[in-house]
Amino acid sequence: MNLLETLQTLNSLHGPSGDETAVAEAIRALAAPYADEITSDTMGNLIVHKKGKGPKVMFAAHMDSIGFLVTHIEENGFLRVGKIGGITPADVLHTPVRLKNGLQGLITADAKVSDKQPKVDDLVLDIGAASQEEAEKAVQVGDTVVYNTPTFAAGSRIISPYLDNRVCCVALLMALEQIQESENDLYFVFTVQEELGLRGAKPAAYTLEPDYAVVVDVTISDDVVGANHSGSSRLGGGAAVKVMDASVICHPAMVQRLEELAQQEKIAVQRDVIRGGGTDAGPIHVSRGGVYTGGVSIPCRYIHTPTEMVEQHDVEACAKLVAAFAQAKL
Predict the structure, then answer these.
(1) pLDDT averaged over the chain?
(2) Which long-range contacts (CB under 8 A, 24 or more apart) does 96-101 make?
(3) Catalytic residue positions, numbered
(4) Quick one: which H or E segment has residue 175?
(5) Which of 152, 148, 175 is nearest to 309 (CA)?
(6) Which of 7, 144, 196, 235 could bridge 311 with an S-S bond, Cβ 3.0-4.6 Å?
(7) What pLDDT does 229 receive?
């Protein structure tokens, strides 16, 4: 599976939190050759099942993205927007965006405020409409909006919107491709609405009742200029075995097992500790009577901006480690 091309495919689709159907359909098609069964639940989580008689293992990566939602159409044709998920207004000024119907535009700010310190309420979407009447022919209140920036390689690194978390969806697909034989009962779950509070993983874990879970998500990269050390990982350091974030303290046995497998398979790894933020591991590890939960993260720079960055070798290491855990005796 070509990492860059698959990312470009997924990011060409509309998939903000709450409207992930197009992304789910694309992942379903990509996963089909490696699955015994693929289903969707009421929330929209996509569940790819490789049957086995051993312990039940759940791998999770969320497929939704942050974005915007149209809240009002002004008389001059500009659109007021609200945020879907964690957006810092200063990070998105003058960013090209698109709506589900293909209409393109630009995020800017109300001229009455400083471009340097706008609030979400100051953001407006310019779709080139000259009047409210013209805008209403193309847009409705409630329409959702996503970044429309490109996905491209810069040496061995990839710059793209929505690496959080589409790159981890690709990593799970790459792991599926690599699995040769396993006694474990494997469920690869592509979850919804993670960006709105880890919503999709909770019912998925409740229904599946896994014995073990491994959550794959991006993590803060601590190698940028002036880093405040809110994370421990760096680009190029390999797959990041999660120890802790604000939503979970991973089970020590899971941390140990993942690191042992990495050593056995000669996979580059580092540790992932972040002070804030959370992943689907949060609701999964406390589901029902509790689940042995770990995480394999991909270091990422500029998270939640229109231009995130990852190292391809880290993605490959993540996929290898997930495949190793899937095939391990548990």
Answers:
(1) 96
(2) 96/147, 96/148, 96/149, 97/68, 97/125, 97/145, 97/146, 97/147, 97/148, 98/14, 98/145, 98/146, 98/148, 99/139, 99/143, 99/144, 99/145, 100/14, 100/19, 100/143, 100/144, 101/138, 101/143
(3) 194
(4) helix 163-178
(5) 152
(6) 235
(7) 78
